[in-house]
Prior knowledge:
There is one protein chain. The chain is α+β, with helices and mostly antiparallel strands and 141 residues long. It has 2 domains: 2-39; 43-135, Alpha-Beta Plaits (2-Layer Sandwich). It is 48% helix and 23% strand. Strands 2-3-1-4 form a 4-stranded antiparallel beta sheet, with helices on one face. Strand 2 and strand 3 form a beta hairpin. Helix 1 (2-16) runs antiparallel to helix 2 (21-39) and helix 3 (57-71) packs antiparallel against helix 5 (111-120). The protein is globular, with a radius of gyration of 19 Å. The two termini are 25 Å apart.
Amino acid sequence: xxxxxxxxxxxxxxxxxxxxxxxxxxxxxxxxxxxxxxxxxxxxxxxxxxxxxxxxxxxxxxxxxxxxxxxxxxxxxxxxxxxxxxxxxxxxxxxxxxxxxxxxxxxxxxxxxxxxxxxxxxxxxxxxxxxxxxxxxxxxx
Length: 141
């Protein structure tokens, strides 16, 4: 079923390239709707890289403990982990896995999630690099 939806999406993308503006808008809406339908069934991962001011590392770790503990209790969260670079202790990576897009949306709506950004804003040496990944196929060896 998912493979068929992906084929439909590709067909619509091809159709998109040969349409006028009115048809393009309708096709955009269809593709967006189908994309959301397909994506909601897939596991989602988030990788967030952070670079901190060296003097703020301890404060950051203390602040991160709350969001890690609470996120790991969310029903759709498979895991929520923080890693510190062993070569540069001011660099961190959050690695998160969720059962689907709805679980990510619930995480983003959580009060503690929304409080975390402002709490660590002055601790960051640069803007965070955040990637949200849809896992369509997972191979475990």
